[in-house]
Structure formats: structure tokens, C-alpha cells
Amino acid sequence: MISIFLTILKITGIVLLSLLLLLVTVLLLILFVPVRYRVSGFRKQGDEVPVNVALKVTWFLHIVNVAFRYPEEAFIKVRLFCFTIFSTDKEQTGKKKKEQKDLSEEAIDKEEKPKTVTAGEETDHLEEELKEKEEAFEKEDDPKISSFIKKLFSILKNIKYTICQIYGKIKHIIKNIRYYIRILKSDTFKRAWSFCSREVFILLKSILPRKFSADFVVGTGDPASTAQILSIQGILYPLVGEHINITPDFEHSIVEGNFFVKGKITVWRILLTAVRVYFNRDLRRVIRLFKKEAA
């Protein structure tokens, strides 16, 4: 009896251990296997659409695959292994539009026709309106001077009250501005700003694309403004290098070309930055000060 009980415990422990190992493995894969993305697009002069874009996101040897295109063959498709989990295409959108049109046409057909009004009813309606206007005019014909004076005094009191309110609000705003300026000049805010900016810069460096290229033909129709665009490219050359190529057109107004971007995102880097920023003492104290929870 004891041996059977021990074998059951052994099997249960092995199953639980295997499940735990599987859970840990999946967690490690989610944290450390990067999500890779690739974006490409192009634009041709004369197209109705400003730009054609294709996005593809993959994870763990393309086990998870997300594709998006716009506007040509616009769709979003999510695949797990070889199975499509979610997909949209033009046919579904076309069917929905047709159904909406059919419903709107049926609703218009079902609407009641406007009622016809006879000449006698119109004259009766006009006479009633004239009587109502005459009665209202007779009531307002003889206003009293005392009521006018009371209304004038009440208006003056309201003006005084509103002026006092505006003055109090302006005084309160100035006080708050001085308070927040003191926070921004404090050493705590400077330490929190330097720490958070450094962490965000590291995060952006890991998220930003590793490979990118672009080739455009640009022309504004004005040689001076086209030359200004080329000067901006020259200023940004130390950052973009030879990855972005702009061919000027000094005679025509044209913008066309293509681009390609490729990079990856790692979950553990995002979580590490979030945890370090969240538990930073200087940042938490600055947040409390902005909320006026600390002296």
C-alpha cells in the first residue's frame, strides 16, 4: 500500500516538475527571445494613396507571425505555427459595406412620407401664432422702473463677484507656478531627470532599427526650397550616413521613393527599464511633490 502511494507521489512530482520547467522555459523565451520587425514602403508620383506600407512582426523562428499591409491588398494576418488565428481582407470589408448600404436603403424606404397640410390648417396655425405674439407683447408692454434698477444692481454685483473670482484664480495659478518652478530647480528633480533620461536612451537604443535605408526623389517646384531640403540632409548626415539618399528635382514638384526598416525588441530590456524607473527614489519623491503629497 505504501509503495503504491509513493509511486503516485513520484508520478505527481514528475508531472508538476515538468509543468514547472515548461512554464519557466516559456517565460525565459518570452523574456529573452527578441520580437523582430520589418517595415517597408514606397510611394509613386500620381498615386491616390500617400504611401504603401508593409509590416511584418515575427517571434521565435517565425512561430508567431503578424503581417500587415496598407492600402494595396489591405489586411492584418496573425499566424501561430501554420494556423491562421486572425485575418482580415478586402472581401470581408466589401461585404460589410454592401450590407450597410442595403440596410440604409431599406431604412430610407421604410420612412414615412411627409404629411400634406391643407390651406385651411395653415391659416388656423398662422392665426394662433399671431394671437400668441400679441399676448406676449401686451405682457411686456409696461416694464417697471424698480425691476430694472434691481436687475442693474444684481448685474453689478455679479460683475464684482466674477472679478474677485478671477483675481483669486490668477493668484492661485501664480502660486502654483512658483511651487513647480522650485521643484524643477531642486537637486532631486535633476537627479531623477538624469537617471530617467539615461534609462530611456538605453531603451530607445535597443528598440530603434538596426538596419534602415531610404531612397527618395524630392522636388518642390522651387529650387530654393529644394536646396533647403538638401541642406537639412547634410546637417543630419552624421546621424543617418549613407542610409538615406535624396535625389533632388529642381524643376518639378515630386515626392517618390522607397524605404526599408528592420529591428528587434526584447521584453526583458523593457521590463528592466520599467522596474528601475519605478523604484527610483528621486523620481517617486518628485511625483509626490508634483501631487503636493510631500512638504
Q: What does it look like?
A:
The protein is of the alpha+beta class and 295 residues long. The two termini are 69 Å apart. It folds into three domains: 79 residues, no CATH class; 53 residues; 110 residues, no CATH class. 59% of the residues lie in helices and 21% in strands.
Range of helix content: 55-70%
How large is the count of helical segments? 9
Number of domains: 3
Which term fits the overall shape? extended
Q: Unreliable segments (pLDDT under 50, ≥5 consecutive)? A: 112-117
How do the SSEs run, as a string of H and E? HEEEEEHHHHEHHEEHH
Determine the N-to-C terminus distance. 69 Å
Task: Give the strand content.
Answer: 15-25%
Short description:
With 295 residues, this protein is an alpha+beta fold.
Keywords:
alpha+beta; 8 strands; 3 domains; 295 residues; 9 helices; eight-stranded mixed sheet; 59% helix
Write the layout of secondary structure elements.
Elements: H1 2-32, E1 35-43, E2 52-59, E3 64-70, E4 75-80, E5 83-87, H2 90-110, H3 119-139, H4 145-184, H5 187-207, E6 211-220, H6 223-235, H7 237-240, E7 244-248, E8 253-265, H8 267-278, H9 281-290
Helix pairs in contact: 5-8, 5-9
